[in-house]
Amino acid sequence: MGLLSRKATGNSHVQDSSYFLGWQEYEKNPYEEKKNPEGIIQMGLAENQLSFDLLESWLAKNPDPAGFKRDGQSIFRELALFQDYHGLHAFKKALIEFMSEIRGNEVTFDPNNIVLAAGATSANEILMFCLAEPGDAFLLPTPYYPGFDRDLKWRTGVEIVPIQCTSSNGFQITETALEEAYQHAQKQNLKVKGVLVTNPSNPLGTTMSCNELNLLVDFIAAKNIHLISDEIYSGTVFSSPGFISIMELLKDRNCENTEVWNRVHIVYSLSKDLGLPGFRVGALYSNDDMVVAAATKMSSFGLVSSQTQYLLSAMLSDKKFTRNYISENQKRLKQRQKTLVSGLEKAGISCLKSNAGLFCWVDMRHLLSSNTFEAEMELWKKIVYDVKLNISPGSSCHCTEPGWFRVCFANMSAETLHLSMQRLKAFVDSTTNLHNHQSVKNSRRKSLTKWVFRLSFDDREPCGER
């Protein structure tokens, strides 16, 4: 061990978080309809598998890009040889047009301002390296994606200070919460370099309101800090209110010639909207030329392959396909979310009203044995080991209130989702019955105690007659 670095041997990767531990338990005993029907169903993975048929249909109709050909001629050699880290112009152009289309073409992007990276994980880390020194801090609203503890902090040395949001207003960001987080960081002698938000939110499955976005822009302007808007779920918005990109808001506020314009940055990926996490296609977008230049150099440590860029530039340039895909994918997400919510309701469980994402923020506070995070972990373990569903506890997302869980719905078949809801309902019913039985038992015990006490009292000899 002495031959390895502290970084290699330390535990700051947060692999021991319950978020990752649930995955490990799933991998030991994964559910399979025929081979392992009693296994654990994976509901902790935010993956979009609902529209693969649309992608596969396009590939079948367009064999050249998938076969690394152009006009029937192989370009394998061209793609296999060295490419610089700026990326293929055709792909960057197709990607920004796809990003604009998702946003209803209310905002356009400059291909010169986008930097490709191996997924949103890499893009977020690059921004940390560009914007902050080790020991500096970013403010993040809770609850937030558990992977940020790894992505933002592990190699960069940047600290995360939570903006405490609560269920009282649907976990929306408030001016008070922002200021309290900033003051808390200062008390810890941390220099705040910016705020990072996910919009739509992971794990809430909600889009940010105009009020929240305006609040954030006003806040970073007043504090002279950065804002990173992670918008990797922007194409998953399936019902109102619609999605408002931070770039759209800046343009509505005529911020183009202000300092704020250069201090707002967007992270995007094709992992969620197209369901291609294995392709490792992410990007960051900034109006600051210095950030773009530095990030481009840093991206050499996590490039997107030329083969991937060539294939996807052809797919995303097919406007008829992208329009149909975005619309159909959102319809399917809406229907699948409705199925999950309905199943939860039948089990007596509610969730935060959501309009985006691949998951729901589920309220199981009434199932806790006490209002503590210890009770939350106790419930989580029962759901993983007994019910055999891997869901993510709110504590792994730094939620301030015990009893909330993130439950994913788009990474499985409709049949598997139905089975998971059957399992959950059976568990809730048995828990409720046990609780009711215990309540009746306790009530009888109290009644018996009172009767024995009364009988004992009635049988006592009168004072003075011994």
Automatic annotation (TrEMBL):
Keywords carried by this UniProt record: Ethylene biosynthesis, Fruit ripening, Lyase, Pyridoxal phosphate, S-adenosyl-L-methionine
Entry EC number(s): 4.4.1.14
Coiled-coil regions listed: none
PROSITE patterns xrefs: AA_TRANSFER_CLASS_1
Pfam families found in the cross-reference section: Aminotran_1_2
A biological-process GO annotation: ethylene biosynthetic process
Essential cofactor(s): pyridoxal 5'-phosphate
Root EC class: lyase
GO molecular function: 1-aminocyclopropane-1-carboxylate synthase activity; pyridoxal phosphate binding; transaminase activity
Pathway assigned in UniProt: Alkene biosynthesis; ethylene biosynthesis via S-adenosyl-L-methionine; ethylene from S-adenosyl-L-methionine: step 1/2
Protein name listed in UniProt: 1-aminocyclopropane-1-carboxylate synthase
Organism: Litchi chinensis (Lychee)
Lineage, uppermost ranks: Eukaryota, Viridiplantae, Streptophyta, Embryophyta, Tracheophyta
Gene this chain is encoded by: ACS2
